[in-house]
Write a structure and sequence with these properties.
This protein has 550 residues and is of the alpha/beta class. It folds into four domains: 35-216, von Willebrand factor, type A domain (Rossmann fold, 3-Layer(aba) Sandwich); 224-259, Laminin (Ribbon), CATH 2.10.25.10; 262-300, Laminin (Ribbon), CATH 2.10.25; 305-485, von Willebrand factor, type A domain (Rossmann fold, 3-Layer(aba) Sandwich). It has helices at 9-16, 19-24, 49-63, 96-104, 115-126, 157-165, 180-186, 191-194, 204-215, 319-334, 366-374, 385-396, 427-435, 450-456, 461-464, 478-485, 503-549; strands at 35-42, 73-80, 84-88, 142-148, 168-175, 195-198, 231-235, 238-242, 247-249, 256-258, 272-276, 279-283, 305-312, 343-350, 354-358, 412-418, 438-445, 465-468. The strands form five sheets. Strands 3-2-1-4-5-6 form a six-stranded mixed sheet, with helices on both faces. Strands 15-14-13-16-17-18 form a six-stranded mixed sheet, sandwiched between helices. A two-stranded antiparallel sheet has the order 7-8. α3 runs antiparallel to α4 (96-104), α3 packs parallel to α9 and α12 runs parallel beside α13 (427-435). The N and C termini lie far apart (122 Å).
Amino acid sequence: MRVLPCSSLPMLLFLLQPWETQLQFAGPRCRTGPLDLVFVIDSSRSVRPFEFETMRQFLVGLLRGLDLGPNATRVGVIQYSSQVQSVFRLGAFLRRDDMERAIRALVPLAQGTMTGLAIQYAMNVAFSVAEGARPPEARVPRVAVIVTDGRPQDRVAEVAAQARARGIEIYAVGVQRADVGSLRAMASPPLDEHVFLVESFDLIQEFGLQFQGRLCAIDHCSFGNHSCQHECVSTLGGPRCRCKDGHDLLPDGRSCQARDLCNGVDHGCEFQCVSEGLTYRCLCPEGRQLQADGKSCNRCREGHVDLVLLVDGSKSVRPQNFELVKRFVNQIVDFLDVSPEGTRVGLVQFSSRVRTEFPLGRYGTAAEVKQAVLEVEYMERGTMTGLALRHMVEHSFSEAQGARPRVLNVPRVGLVFTDGRSQDDISVWATRAKEEGIVMYAVGVGKAVEEELREIASEPAELHVSYSPDFSTMTHLLENLKGSICPEEGISAGTELRSPCECESLVEFQGRTLGALESLTQNLAQLTARLEDLENRLDVVKMMNMEKRD
């Protein structure tokens, strides 16, 4: 236990005074601000009468150094042995004389040492609003000072932890025979600032002086060693770190982390929510723009497409990478206008066999498609890409599977995703797919064979083949696929799908064709005129050269 410096004569005379007087004249009265303070005093039979009298004088002297009042410090005192007795509650007295009178009339209980029971009483009764404590929403600090001279006869660790969890700051003062382990189990952290052990009741004034110094308005933050990332707050126990609004204090007690508002509010973001201090904002996947409502994302020109995805589920992919493939598929779905009238999506998985996970006509929203993709189970085994292409051509784009009739001219798109060489021939059905009018895209990862990817894909290969060396980096392919599957010029959602054999369709086609021919004729005439001008200029140059030679 450290003793306060006493190098000067006035300090020496101060320490030689009766310590009740020391505490009374130890400087100006502490201006602590609002504080609810409860003393929990051990009056068991092990505390001898003269020791109890010393503790009584200690309390009286400490009171004289406090700024008491209804809006300042409120004090309550309880004593305990085998039972607990309230000497006076927090709201009972506001005058110092009344408190001193009650303390001087205190009669010790002289029984056992049930410290845990006393803490339970302080937590549930002494610090209740009914007893005079200010309500929790007032954020008035609650401090309990436990003074004991022995080992508790009941458990204290659990109930002390509950009290601290309720916001009660506990100082544990042990005298003579007190058990240090029990003191540490009761006190608030940091323990070196909340645990005090003195050799005798005669020296308890040392704790009184230090405790009074803690209650006084000492700015612990001014010493500059708090290491707080945001703000430092000076408390009774020393400096405490506090974070700015919208941030939470990390377990190290110094660092702050932005609060994730996206997990605590119904943000309504269609794709992704990002917390930013006291607010949040919505983000859209790459290639899509946030709409005016700040929540939804634009679609792939809301185009009409029948899209079938062929996903490699062979054993070379591995389970963890297959999950990345499913995530990649869902990112593709994110930029599509999935609806019965817009884009329809089907999914086929292949390995040594082929399995339709869901056909084109099953799901009508992007959310339904994405959930179905997440539920797909990994097949493993071989890599029969040719068999998968045959299945796609013969079944996946049939009207029975949900594809729209050919007369509606809805584009049919096939996207093959693979990570290795096929174990069967792909050439026949890759060619057949393109002959059937299916626009084919090939996405390769890792050990995928470029020659096979080009054979699967439509021309030009630069627009229809994508490759990534690793599963974890394949998200960069999304922009290429978005620009290909969603071309700038396409069939928009506002376009009425009609049979090309209807009269209106023929007239419209004829009009567009004649307009294009007329534009070409004008361009050709302009080009011819420019050529004639160049020829005339060349003739002039030739004549000038001949004249010079003559």
